[in-house]
Every structure is written in structure tokens, then in C-alpha cells.
Design brief:
Elements lengths: L1 E2 L3 E6 L2 E6 L10 H16 L5 E6 L10 H7 L5 H7 L5 E5 L2 E3 L1 H7 L3 E5 L3 E3 L13 H8 L2 H10 L3 E2 H7 L4 E3 L4 H13 L3 H13 L5 H16 L2 H11 L10
Parallel strand pairs: 3-4, 4-5, 5-7, 6-8, 7-10
Antiparallel strand pairs: 1-2, 2-3, 8-9
Helix pairs in contact: 5-6, 9-10
């Protein structure tokens, strides 16, 4: 386990568990937390022994958004915009207990999959404090939700429940309260069972297909096809299937 003042990381097999650790401030985002997130994602992306990550929050909730006291005193948290724009190259799953609000939801939206507890509230409330959701929610929510739902959330600042979020397709799984980390780790471990190059290409192409034509997509896919389909793992997969054994992925 490694840590800084606001973020903890722990390796669970091929999965990195990342925990926001400012429970006394409902995991509100300040510069320490933003820098910790950047370091954690760098750890995930740079370690060939890791295939996926799970991001959660310590205490009563996932993340309440930007630390408004710190914002009023010194402006936005340094490094937060970089994290929101780049996220992780590897699959990242948000495990949401309690709430993911404002910038906290924008942190969750950098993840590829969301798991939420039954009592979780999910929303962007920036308009209630004279701001708007400038950390990617106004881009990413309409891609994951029906237009009218995203618009209502943005204009009213009112959250939706985890069950509503699942019905709209924003959340993959709803768990009992306290069960999100186990469910997210289970999902991450299912991902980690697969060939790393194939997983990376699948994530990259699904992300890239939004807003491009079919012709552009096929061109975009070609280098991924060459890399993945000529890899050692592409030989190992069929061989292990034929030999009725578990595959031994090398990531090459």
C-alpha cells in the first residue's frame, strides 16, 4: 500500500484499489487529493502487472466535489483538470457509496464503469453555488444519459438515485450499501482475466468512436488490429482454449 495525504493505493492481484481519503471533508477535492489522483493513475498506467483499477472513497461517500473553502482561498485544485481530461489508459471502475456530487461525479465520469450503492445520490449541483460543471460532466453525461435527463440534472442541480442511474445505463451495477468495493473488484478481476492488449484496444476504440463516421472508425481500428491480432496473446488465447487450460497472458 502507498499513500499521500489524501489518496491511498493498494494492489489486489492485477487490480489497483485507489481510495480518496479525506473523509473529514467528504473527500472534497483539494490540491493534495488532485495530485494524489494523478499519482495513482500514473501508478496504474505504468505498472505492467496491473490491468485495471477501482476508485472509491473513504467514509460516508465517494466524493462531494470541489473543496469550496480551498477554492475560495486559492482557486481550483492544481492538477485536477489534468486528471479529468486524461483519466487512465487502463479500465477504471468507480465504486460509489453515499454520494458522487458535482466534481465528485466528474471524477466518477472519468471512469469506464460505475458501481453504486442503493442509497447513493449522483448529481451535478454547481449551478446552486453560481458555477457550472466545468470538469467534463456537460460533455460526458449527455453521452451516457438521455439528453433530457442530462439537461435536467445540469439545470436544476438535483441528483438522481442509483436505481435511476442504472435504469438510464449510467451505472452498471447497484449493490447493497457497503457492497460497492467488492462488486467493483469482482468486475475489475473479470477484466484482468483477459488479454491486456485486447482490453486496452477495446477501451480505446469504444472511447474514440463517439463523434466519428464509420469510415473514420475503420481507419482508426487498423493499427489496433495489427498490434493485437499479431501479438503473442493472440496465439495464447486460441491455444489455451484448444488445450482446455487457463490462458497465460504476457501483454505482448
Amino acid at each position: 500500500m502507498t499513500e499521500n495525504s489524501a489518496v491511498l493505493t493498494e494492489t489486489r492481484g492485477r487490480v489497483l484499489l485507489i481510495t480518496l481519503n479525506r473523509p473529514e471533508a467528504m473527500n472534497a477535492i483539494n490540491t493534495d487529493l488532485a495530485q494524489g489522483l494523478l499519482s495513482a493513475v500514473e501508478e496504474l498506467d505504468s505498472n505492467d502487472g496491473l490491468t485495471a483499477g477501482v476508485l472509491t472513497g473513504n467514509g460516508r461517500g465517494f466524493c462531494s466535489g470541489m473543496d469550496l473553502k480551498a477554492f475560495a482561498a486559492g482557486g481550483p485544485p492544481k492538477g485536477f483538470d489534468q486528471f479529468l481530461e486524461t483519466g487512465s489508459k487502463k479500465p477504471l471502475i468507480a465504486a460509489i457509496e453515499g454520494f458522487a456530487l458535482a466534481g465528485g461525479l466528474e471524477v466518477a465520469l472519468t471512469c469506464d464503469l460505475l458501481v453504486a450503492a442503493k442509497d447513493a445520490k449522483i448529481g451535478i449541483r454547481e449551478v446552486k453555488v453560481g458555477l457550472f460543471a466545468a470538469g467534463g460532466a456537460l460533455l460526458r453525461l449527455p453521452r451516457r444519459l438521455p439528453y433530457s435527463v442530462a439537461m435536467e440534472m445540469a439545470l436544476t442541480g438535483q441528483p438522481i438515485t442509483s436505481d435511476e442511474a442504472k435504469s438510464y445505463g449510467l451505472v452498471s451495477r447497484v449493490t447493497d450499501n457497503g457492497g460497492t468495493i467488492d462488486a467493483a473488484l469482482d468486475l475489475a478481476e473479470q477484466i484482468a482475466e483477459n488479454a491486456p492488449l485486447a482490453v486496452a484496444a477495446s477501451k480505446a476504440l469504444i472511447q474514440a468512436q463517439q463523434g466519428i463516421t464509420e469510415e473514420e472508425f475503420w481507419e482508426l481500428q487498423k493499427p489496433h488490429m495489427v498490434k493485437v491480432f499479431t501479438s503473442n496473446d493472440a496465439k495464447e488465447g486460441p491455444a489455451s482454449f484448444a488445450e482446455k487450460r487457463s490462458p497465460n497472458w504476457s501483454g505482448t
